[in-house]
Amino acid sequence: MTESNGSAARDQQQDEDMPNWEKRFRAPRVSLPDWAEDAPDRSLFVSNATGTYELYAWDRSTGVQRQVTDRPNGTTDGVLSPDGRWIWWFDDKDGDEFGVWRRQPFGGGEDECAVPGVDASYPAGLALGRDGRTAVVGRSTDEDGTTIHLARAGEPPVEIYRHRESAGVGDLSHDGTLIAVEHTEHGDAMHSALRVMRPDGTRVAELDDTDGGTRELGLEVLGFAPVDGDTRLLIGHQRRGRWEPLVWDVASGEETDLALELPGDVSAEWYPDGSGLLVAHSFEARSELFRYDFAQRELIEIPTPAGTVSGATARPDGSVEYLWSSAAQPPVVRSTSGRVVLDPPGMKSPGSVPVEDVWVEGPGGRIHALVQRPAGATGPLPTVFDIHGGPTWHDSDAFAAAPAAWVDHGYAVVRVNYRGSTGYGRAWTDALKHRVGLIELEDIAAVREWAVESGLADPDRLVLTGGSWGGYLTLLGLGVQPEAWTLGIAVVPVADYVTAYHDEMEALKAMDRTLLGGTPEEVPERFEASSPITYVDRVKAPVYISAGVNDPRCPIRQIENYVKRLEQRGAPHEVYRYDAGHGSLVVEERIKQVGLELDFAAKHLG
Question: What is the four-CA torsion angle of 83, 84, 85, 87, rounded to 10 degrees?
Answer without folding.
Answer: 120
